[in-house]
Here is the input.
Amino acid sequence: MPDPQAACLDICITCRDPQTGAPGEGERLFKAASRMPAPDGVTVRPLSCLANCDRGCSAALTMPRKWSVLLGRLTAPQAGDLLVYARAYAQSTNGMLMPSRRPDSLRNVVLGRVPGAAMDLP
Here is the structure.
C-alpha cells in the first residue's frame, strides 16, 4: 500500500511505442523505472490505460493538495529522468514545475494538469 502522503508516479503499462505503435513501451518504461531506486517520498506504480493512446506512452504524477500532471510521449530510456522529475514534483510547493526545472528530455511532455483535492484555488 503506497504512503497516502507520498507522490505517486503512475505509469501506464498498456501504452505502445509512440513512433511505431508497437505494444510494450509502457511495460518497458515501468520496468526500467522499477529497476532504479524510487526517490524519497515517491511511489512508482503500474496501471492500465490512462486513455491517452494517441500521445504515446503516458504517466501521471499525483500528490495530495498539489496539481496532478499528465505526461505523454514517453519512452523507456527516459525512466531515470522521469524519476528525477518525480522527485522535484514531490518536493515542490504545488506540483507545478516550469520546463526549465525538468530534465531536458521531459521539457515538452506535460499534456495537462488537474487541481488536487482540497487545494485552495483562486
